[in-house]
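Hey L., structure's done. Input below.
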Amino acid sequence: MNIRKSKPRGAILEELQKLKTHPRGDELYDIVRRRLPQISLGTVYRNLDLLRRQGRVAAIFCGDFNRYDGDISSHPHFLCRQCKRLWDFEASGIPEKIEPVRDDDVFQVEGHYIVFYGLCDRCPSE
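Output:
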């Protein structure tokens, strides 16, 4: 996929790569808008989708929305099922490379991500 560079796309990627908070698209929009006041929310979402398809950002499904990660290295995350915060998570026993057991032409694995979930220390148990 050969896509020309654009100032908004570059700013979105740069700002996302600075963050460790895994923002939603609207949260990233608020951050990028400080740098590019004329940018629209639609431009942010369109460029996030393009960057995801290019493999330059990760979109992590969090129920009814995505959070975005500028760190595309293989690493697990923890998602609080109550407050929906997401952060990088250190876990032992997870192999660097996970190979599918089934090897056929039904699908082609392009990647994976692991999300642990539960309650964070800020959220009371039910």
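The chain has three helices and five strands. The chain has one domain: 7-118.

-- N.
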